[in-house]
Input
Amino acid sequence: TFSIMNAKVLNKDLYFAGSYLYFNKNISWKSGAALTSRTSDFNGEFPIYDFAQRESHPSFHVDTIQKLITPEIYSYVKYKINNNWIVGTGVRTNFPFKGQRNYLAKQLNLNFSTDHIHSLTISAGDYYNFILQNEALNDKLITSQQYSIDYQLKLSDLKLTSAVFYKKSKNDKTISSATGFEIFIKYHLAEKIEVTSSFMCIDVKSVNDDQIVKSPYDIEYFVRASLKYNFLTNWGLSAVGVFRQGTWYRPVQQANYNANLDVYQPYYTSNFDRLPNYAKLDISLNRYWPVSKGMTIILFGSINNVFNHANVREINYNPDYSDSFEELFSQRTFILEQ
Output
């Protein structure tokens, strides 16, 4: 029997803001002030060891109130240099509240476009965000530097967007970096047929206390494609396919019996492995009937994971870790709704 974790969370978020906006043919300017108040009342019972979760195993109780109040002022300016070039910049800073650290967030972007067909945007910025935590502790400030180049192409039947980006962030003792590329294409094959496809790859590196931590977002390829077809009278057919690399996990190397807890304690390898690739195709069919001005009847049917591919969510083990088994995402599913 697993321990009962009756965790309860009550969140309260308040946001107040006031701003002044000025604009004319070539310039727009927005300045203002904002106050963000976040409160989280959190309590519950949790096991001390993740490998020992029966009711008889040791646990600890959490009962804490987390508060965060952040007053800020900001200013953003966008200037149209000519018909092709637009430059924008902005700053945001906080008034330190109850010993909080002061920060100055800033961003700059430059946009070039031609005939509303081609568009190129270069952006850079420093951003900051406080982590909600126990009010008795010192504040935790997440810092990040972000850079990106975005390209967009718009034609009558084709839309293409692509981007390369880099982000470096620091959260307490964890330093992370992410470098990636993505492209999205939408194309109208015919009046009633639309196809989309996208590809993304992202390289994420995280270091915590000189230890490398693998991120679930570290994926070398993520492909998504879709087809939408409207036919006859009020009928619609769609298909969505996803194919991506499996996420990282750490296999168990060995397990030793812990007599005090009466369980086996696992020890993980220092190296990470990948789960198998994830692949899924969903197909749906819908039909709607307008009954009156304010009423419509919709019939919807779908088959999720058409090919019943065994997509692995995680690797689990038997009680003594002598054998492993795959926990799967949902397999082929039929849905019919009205």
Notes: The chain has a mean pLDDT of 91. The radius of gyration is 26 Å.
